[in-house]
Amino acid sequence: MTLVSLCFEVHQPIRLKKNFFWDGSTLKEVVPDLRDYYFDDPENRRIFERVADKCYLPANQVILDSIKRFEGSDKPFCVAYSFSGVFLEQARSYRPEVLDSFLRLVDTGRVEVMEQTYYHSLSSLYEDQREFTEEVKMHREAIWELFGLRPTTFENTELIYNDQVARMAESMGYKAIFTEGTLADPNYVYRPPETSLSLLLRNYKLTDDIGFRFSSHNWEEYPLTADKYASWLAAAPGQCINIFCDYETFGEHQWADTGIFEFLRHLPEEVSRHPNLRFATPAEIARLVPPKQELSIRDYISWADIERDTSCWLGNALQQACFIYQKRLEAPARESRDDLLRIWRTLGISDHLYYLFTHGGAPGEVHSYFSPYGIPYDASVTYFSVLADLHYRLKKKIHLADAPFRFATGVDRFTGEVAWSLAGMSEALKTVSLESLEYHSRQGDLAFWAGTSLGDGALAERISRSKRLKGERLRERLIKEVQSALGGAR
Fold first, then answer.
1. 461 a catalytic residue
2. Is 149 exposed, middle or buried (0-12, 13-18, 19+ CB in 10 A)?
3. Could you tell me if 28 and 133 lie in one domain?
4. pTM assigned to the model
5. Is 246 found in the same domain as 389?
């Protein structure tokens, strides 16, 4: 028996105001709502509502009808979804009925919900794993709150994967993980090295037959019917076939008049006609199909473009510069301890970099199709200017230092605690060990940092007067002086 999983990624980005720079919006002092200042809510709403009517609501109804039609059958119909957190936010805000329709699907018990990064981000590419871990936890909490589920299958943004991502996923308790099926036969289950995970591979050829070639009159297999497709599945060797595409394929990328909904409606019945086929969820495949062998993937792969790597987000200098700039603002955003962190994370949505793709050709046409900008250079001007504006506001709010202060208890004996700003120092002083505080006080490090990296000579002078204090009296004095300076800076 060959197990067929039908999986969908459901994501909508949060788009920036594309004329942010040209309208002279940068670095204004008085901004009532920074989120509305950066992000184009009317446009995001318009697109979401359009896709809801063309894709989400009709596709959900087709799938719900099919699940009910095969209820009680020895070959029940089932599917799997991976929702980005920002999609769920927009559904709740713009079209709650879309969320309700997904809830009805999950309530059938025939739908697996997978997990991913909340912001559909590239955080798995960061050197520090903290942001990736926190976004996955945020997603886990959202799925529990909405659906009451604890998913066991992980799907990283656009199937970005390597051995390290597998280890991170296993450390968070997942049993299975998805990636692109370019490096091995996708119709088997594999085991990442040094883990007990099941590695599932997307069958990209059979997936792209639906996602990209379905309506192409130049394709030799046009028109693609459900019975023809099911016969391909039945003839494919292996133990499992993972079909994994953007949900927007149905009705948005492939319009209704192409026959895509009729294809989706008839596919479950046509698959059931073949004695060697039945539908299964990814979790079920991971549970039932033993790994064929260990598969090590050291370099990052993804399902993006024909390169199937990370070049669609990081393939040119514009993308790399924006990626590095956004990543560098992580620590300051964390020390802001307010909505600025949420805004920083929203600026980490991978689509912002996707729009900066400049390589042209067929992949360039796909990028342009999704982009709200005329050309990628306009996208880069907007994105970089918003990042610069956020940087400016972080610097003002938390009194960002030119260089971070790294706590230690001796030469090259770092504790791992770091303060990137006056606000960060205020919090760090509450928990840093007295041994470290006394060491830095003797060395004059804190006063030197205040005078050079913060440019606050007055604070440096006041801190230097605390040199003779020890223990909790030293901590209390340092906290008092830093908080006083922070209040003045604000």
1. no
2. middle
3. yes
4. 0.94
5. no
